[in-house]
Amino acid sequence: MKNWQITVVCTVLLVSVNALADTVTIPNTFSSGTPAIAAEVNDNFSAIKTAVDDNDEKINQLKDNLSNNICSGFSYVRGFNANNEVICSSDLSGTGYSRRLPVYQDNLTVLEIENYTVNKPVLIVSGLGIEIDRIRQFVDAAPDYVPGLNTEQDFVIEVDLADEPGLQSMFDNPPANNKTMSVIVRDLSATEVFRYNLFEYTPLEYVDVGNGRARFTFVQSLAANNTLQIESGQNNIFGNQISNNPNTDTLIEISGIISNFYPQVEDDVTAKTLTLTYDINEGAGLYLWFKLTAEGAGVNRDISVIQQSGGIETSRKNYYEIFPVRWEIFEGFSLPQKIKARVVLSYDFSEDA
Fold first, then answer.
1. What is the C-alpha separation between 311 and 293, in angstroms, rounded?
2. Which residue range(s) make up the domain with 53?
3. Are 137 and 36 part of one and the same domain?
4. pLDDT tens digit string along 34-66?
């Protein structure tokens, strides 16, 4: 417990002089060879106890303030006021700029909502994702997975309430008809590069996250089916360049779709899934494969995950009977160059080559 309190005090020292613990003033000083008077010794201990109790009270107050007033949304703790209350900030300029820019600005983009004018760019919190049901069967005693129906993820945005008062009204009084929405990604010249259209969505709820901001959740209103309600306005926005970060990426080959592909690869051997994370300039063909699978026209593929050293293959692992079960764009909506996508693939079995 004492170690935890010291950690809190050290953290507070970094953010505000108002949160500093008080120093201890010892009333009596004793010299070598001089008898100590019990009353004076007790006064010293009493002074220490008073200071410790006072500091403990301040630490508990800071704990309560951090718990009750921790900054919401994409704001950050800027410091403490004279009452040791948390000061939050959400400005993009000045203090905290470099801290907030990657989180906030990278996911700020233009949104169009049918029969509603969105006044300013919105923050995409989650969405632009589709999942396909993964059905487990057995052939003899071995699991055999097959795709089922698909459904779209909830679409969540965050806005300043002062900018979008009409959104609150829409959610308080949901429209009779479902909405079509478009997430628009523009380049530095503000020219639209591509858009993703979301069909048949309806307002679900909104939550106040503090600092005058709220998060609004739209949900797909249709039951699970074999059609996609999130589609790109272009046939394929992803490229076929080689984009290899040696620190994070792994070479893979997908039969009949792509070779010389270097995504980040995660293998969940228990769930029998591969997760591939990649940039906009690579991964051509993956979305179309997902789309065909969702529509019941997909073909299972085989994948090789290849380890290299100095550009020379050192080992490979092969995965069989693969089909996609989840696809999403999860980051970088502010600029096409920042877009990141993720696809989760189901496999039946694997082996070292």
1. 33
2. 2-89
3. no
4. 777 778 778 777 877 787 777 767 666 655 554
